[in-house]
Design goal:
Length: about 210
C-alpha cells in the first residue's frame, strides 16, 4: 500500500521574524517580573546603575556593546542565585543639550535670546524627554534586563532634591568650599564649563620675549 503525505501549507516552517519573536518573549519576561530586584535576606545582592547615556542623541553601536556586557553580568548573577538589580536611566546632559537646540535654532534663523527664556527651556526639555524615551526603547529592543519600574532621569525632582541634600551635607562637613581658581568660560553660553566639557586643540603659536631693565 502506498501512502502519500498531504502537503499542508500551515505546517511549513515560516521564516524567523525577530521582531515578532523577541517582542513576545520580552513582554513575557516583563510580565513575569524577571528583571525586578528585591531586598531578600536569604540572597546576596548584586546591582548595577547604568552609566546614563545623555539625551543629545539616540544610542549607537558603542552603547549596544557596553549595555550588552552589563546585561551579561546581571543575567549571570541572577542565574547564580543573586538578587540582581539593574537600574536604567538617562542623563539630561545640561549644556550639551542646550548647544544642540541652539544649533537647531540657528538653522531656523533665530537664537535662544530671540526665542526667550521660557520658550527655550520648553524646547530643550521637549528634546531631552523625546530622546530619553527613544533611548529607553532602544535598550528594550536589544533585550536589556533592566528594572524599568526604577528608571531614573537626571532632571527628575527626586534626584534634584537628593543632589542638593548631598551637596549641603558635604559643605557642612567642609568637603566643599569656595575658592579662587581659573575656570573655563564659554563666551557663547555665558557660563563656566567643567574640564570634561572642554575640547582641547593644539595650535601653532608664538612665544614672546620682553626685555626690560632691572
Amino acid at each position: 500500500m502506498n501512502t502519500k503525505t498531504k502537503n499542508n501549507d500551515n505546517s511549513k516552517a515560516k521564516p524567523y521574524d525577530p521582531t515578532t519573536v523577541e517582542n513576545r518573549l520580552y513582554a513575557d519576561w516583563l510580565k513575569a517580573g524577571y528583571f525586578k530586584g528585591e531586598i531578600k535576606k536569604d540572597k546576596n545582592p548584586y546591582s548595577i546603575v547604568i552609566p546614563p547615556p545623555n539625551v543629545t542623541d539616540i544610542l549607537h553601536l558603542g552603547h549596544a556593546l557596553n549595555n550588552t556586557i552589563q546585561d551579561i553580568l546581571v543575567r549571570q548573577k541572577r542565574m547564580s542565585g543573586f538578587e540582581a538589580e539593574w537600574v536604567p536611566g538617562a542623563d539630561h546632559a545640561g549644556i550639551a543639550t542646550q548647544v544642540i537646540v541652539e544649533k537647531q535654532l540657528k538653522k531656523e534663523g533665530t537664537t535662544r535670546r530671540e526665542l526667550g527664556r521660557d520658550k527655550f527651556l520648553e524646547r530643550t526639555t521637549e528634546l531631552a524627554y523625546r530622546n530619553k524615551d527613544q533611548i529607553l526603547n532602544q535598550l528594550k529592543k536589544i533585550g536589556c534586563s533592566c528594572d524599568w519600574e526604577r528608571t531614573r532621569f537626571t532632571i527628575d525632582e527626586s534626584l534634584s532634591r537628593a543632589v542638593l541634600k548631598v551637596f549641603i551635607h558635604l559643605y557642612e562637613k567642609g568637603l566643599i568650599y569656595r575658592g579662587h581658581r581659573i575656570v573655563n568660560w564659554c563666551p557663547s553660553c555665558q557660563t563656566s564649563l567643567s574640564d570634561d566639557e572642554v575640547e582641547h586643540e593644539d595650535k601653532q603659536g608664538s612665544l614672546w620675549y620682553i626685555k626690560y631693565k632691572l
